[in-house]
Amino acid sequence: MVKALAKYIGQYKKHLFMAPILVLLDVVAELSIPILMSRIVDVGIPAGDTRYIMRTGIAMILLALGAIILGVANMKVSATAGQGFGANLRDALFAKVQEFSFANIDHFSTGSLVTRLTIDVNNLQNTLTMGVRLLLRSPMMLIVAMVLAYRINARLSIIIALAMPVLAIAIALIMTNARKRFTVMQARVDALNSTIQENLIGIRVVKSFVRQNYEKKKFKGANDALTSAAIHAASLVVISMPMMMLVVNAATLAIIKIGGGLVIEGAMGTGELISFISYVMQILVSIMMLSMIFLMLARAEASGKRIVEVLKTQVDIADPGEMQEGAEKTSRENPQLQFGKIEFRDVSFKYATSGTGENVLSDIRFVVQPGEVVGIVGGTATGKTSLVNLIPRLYDVTAGSVLVDDVDVRDYKLNDLRKDIGMVLQQNTLFSGTIRENLLWGNENASQEDLEQVCKDAQAHEFIMSFPDGYDTFLGQGGVNISGGQKQRLYIARAMLKSPKILILDDSTSAVDSATEEKIRRSFYSNFKDTTVLIIAQRISSVSKADKILVLDDGKLVGMGTHTELMQNNKIYQEINASQQEGVLNA
Question: Other C-beta atoms within 10 Å of 156: how many?
């Protein structure tokens, strides 16, 4: 894990190189002060040598100032290294998530990914910052102080030797249990973040169904679970810290008692005893600091494993040259989508996260010629969306193959394939920014004339111009300040602006009235004659004029033909049409 994360230190390696030097100089400066103090007490004061006392005192002040400067420099170096490491790691994680296929994203919950990008990275960042300052300082302080204490009085050093095993047991207790407890705690943070995210995204639904109390209870459950896990993890400190303080205080009392006797006997100077006690305190405090660092390392290890899990996740949809060894290689050097022909050859598909392991699609076979308008109909959960998601490789087939322009989609570079496919998904998004900025996602180089043309085709131009700022009207997050039907028309316009070879509309006019939908549909036939258009629709009327209609049922293709043909020979299509006609009459 350390090896996998170390490379993200990147340009901040020089700061890590400087840190041990600064720490060593700081430790030497700080630990030299008790020696000088003992000389003042044992040499300067008995001899009444004021000049010696002044010189030694000035030296102590200079050393103290030097230690402060070195400490500040170390803090700056360690903070720079920690913050830089965190920034590099966040960049790498975000870039990795951007490469994820839908299947990879399904594996991690959104809340978990947010936690890993924020809290887990912060844990590692803070650990590196504190580690550079303390993980280096504490051992150096411990070793140097032990050597100096032994040189002052070997007999008193035995007390330290007796105290250290007890402190080591306390540290071992922390390390044995901390890793598992912090792993559980981070999982509870994931759950809490997911709960918050789900609530905020669906806050309008929550309020419309008056479910605030239910959501509060749900949040309280997740919050209480996190609190319990955090207290369980923190209890390690509660258990070990009193034990360590007892040992430290007992050792200090023993040293004062035995050392005081040595001073009375004349076997040890008063200044030496004071210096020895100072070094003992440094030794014991260093050990306690190490225990805190180990606790931090345990939490960092739990966070680090979660981060590495994301970074090492095999992206299951990649460009042909990046496929794993043994995977199918490209059949053409660099295929380009040119015409928009689509073919499904014996396609079967199931989601990797499916608990049942059953196929969502089974043995799908059909061909769509360039420029055709194709409707896709069927009941709920019959695989319509899953089918169109396979064309731009948002998921990969489980069996069979999907071909575009007679080339397997797995043989295209992803960018080359997707740049010529426009999609209006069931769950689409408008981003914070102006209408213009959102539309330019389709083509960042589009002119104002281009924007207006596609918006007229999508029946969006009129309502856009009704706003005082027109195309520069600012949209809140998710387009909260416009209606559902207006959003859908902007989604369609954005996809049209790509001038795609293939345009996929997944139930994209469900919030649009029939008259507007008819106008949008007409634009496909008049302005997108060379574009292959696939329309997933709930209403038969939305696809009745399509060149071809696919009928799905239980993941199987059970009918294909024109509206007239299917009305004559396809029972399921007839039933769908009859149910909708009945609904219209009843309305």
Answer: 22
The amino acid that residue 467 corresponds to is F
Residue 316, classified by CB atoms within 10 Å of its CB into exposed (0-12), middle (13-18) or buried (19+), is middle
- Asked if the model's pLDDT at residue 584 lies above 60, the reply is no
Which pairing describes strands 342-349 and 361-368: parallel, antiparallel, or unpaired?
A: antiparallel
C-alpha span between 425 and 428 (Å, rounded): 5
Query: What residues form DSSP beta bridges with 401?
Result: 345
335-420+500-587 and 2-311 share a CATH fold: no
Name which of 10, 8, 54, 14 is nearest 304 in CA terms: 8
Place 370 in a pLDDT band, splitting at 50, 70 and 90: very high
Q: What's the pLDDT tens digit per position in 185-240?
A: 888 888 888 888 778 777 767 776 678 888 888 888 988 998 988 888 777 666 66
pLDDT tens, position by position, 442-496: 899 999 999 999 999 999 999 999 999 999 999 877 777 888 888 989 999 999 9
Angle at 111 between CA 190 and CA 414, to 5 degrees: 135
Contact 412, 442 (CB under 8 A): no
User: In 3-state terms, what secondary structure has residue 560?
Assistant: strand
Q: Are 316 and 380 in contact (CB under 8 A)?
A: no
- Amino acid at site 385: T
Residue-level pLDDT at 390:
94
Could you write out the three-class secondary structure of 108-164? CCHHHHHHHHHHHHHHHHHHHHHHHHHHCHHHHHHHHHHHHHHHHCHHHHHHHHHHH
Q: How far apart (Å, rounded) are the C-alpha atoms in residues 173 and 295?
A: 10
Specify the pTM.
0.71
Going from the C-alpha of 304 to that of each of 174, 289, 298, the distances in angstroms are: 18, 22, 10
Distances in Å between the Cα of 260 and the Cα atoms of 35, 257, 266, 270, 523 are: 18, 5, 10, 8, 99
Nearest Cα residue to 282 out of 74, 67, 138: 138
CATH of 430-498, one of 3.40.50.720, 3.40.50.300, 1.10.246.130, 3.40.50.2300: 3.40.50.300
CATH 1.20.1560.10 fits 2-311, yes or no: yes
End-to-end CA distance of the chain: 63
| Rounded Cα distance, 265 and 268, in Å | 8
Domains of the chain by residue range: 2-311, 335-420+500-587, 430-498
C-alpha distances (whole Å) from 431 to each of 110, 135, 441 are: 18, 44, 10
How are strands ordered across the β-sheet holding 342-349?
Answer: 361-368, 342-349, 399-404, 407-408
Beta bridge partner(s), residue 559: 551
Which one, of 498, 131, 133, lies nearest residue 299 by Cα? 131
> Which two tokens mark 299?
């939490």
Instruction: Determine whether domain 335-420+500-587 maps to CATH 3.40.50.300.
Output: yes
